[in-house]
Amino acid sequence: MAEGTLYTIGFSQKSARQFFGLLMDNGVKRLIDIRLNNNSQLAGFTKMPDLEYFLKEIADIEYIYLPEFAPTKTIMDDYKNKKINWREYEKQYLALLVERQPLAKLDAAIFNDSCLLCAEASAQYCHRRLAAEYITRMVTGLSIVHLGQA
């Protein structure tokens, strides 16, 4: 059981000032990166290993990479290429989480005052929302707050 808030944030359409400001203003203690690719050139200030350094130096926030919460490349590509719609994406992603059982090897307390990171500006059509909902169904006492919605 955990108590507190599980935040989510996307880095798209945010400056570094906005991104780090949202994390600090909300008291985030750790950023949990759930992107499939955390070192893409498109990631800007959220490219590893720079992100881990910036989080620690700017905001004293811990960085954790948990790719077991990332969708597969196939699921991502099928959605981006319109081979599947959002409803099917959700279904496949949630089935993937059930298969992977990512919470089985984690201490639930890790999610308290943590923030799930992905790229999408809005959580509505992003796996970080689905991951947060999955986590809060399995870990009692957490509420979800999506930071900086566009």
Beta content: 15-25%
Low-confidence stretches: none
Main pleated sheet? 5 strands, parallel
**Oligomer state of the chains in this structure:** single chain
- Shape estimate: globular
Q: What's the N-to-C terminus distance?
A: 31 Å
Give the overall pLDDT as a whole number. 92
Q: The CATH topology is what?
A: Cobalt-precorrin-4 Transmethylase, domain 1
Q: Which CATH architecture is right?
A: 3-Layer(aba) Sandwich
CATH class: Alpha Beta
SS element count, helices = 5
Q: What gyration radius follows from the Cα positions, in whole Å?
A: 15 Å
- Secondary structure category: alpha/beta
The percent range for helix content is 25-40%
Strand tally is 5
Strand order of the largest sheet: 3-2-4-1-5
Domain count: 1
Reading the helices and strands in chain order gives EHEHEHHEHE
Task: Report on this structure.
There is one protein chain. With 150 residues, this protein is α/β, with parallel strands linked by helices. Helix content is 37%, strand content 17%. Helix 2 links the parallel strand 2 and strand 3. The longest helix is centred in the middle third of the chain and has 15 residues, at 86-100. 29% of the residues are buried. It comes from Sporolituus thermophilus DSM 23256. This is DUF488 domain-containing protein. Pfam families: DUF488 (PF04343).
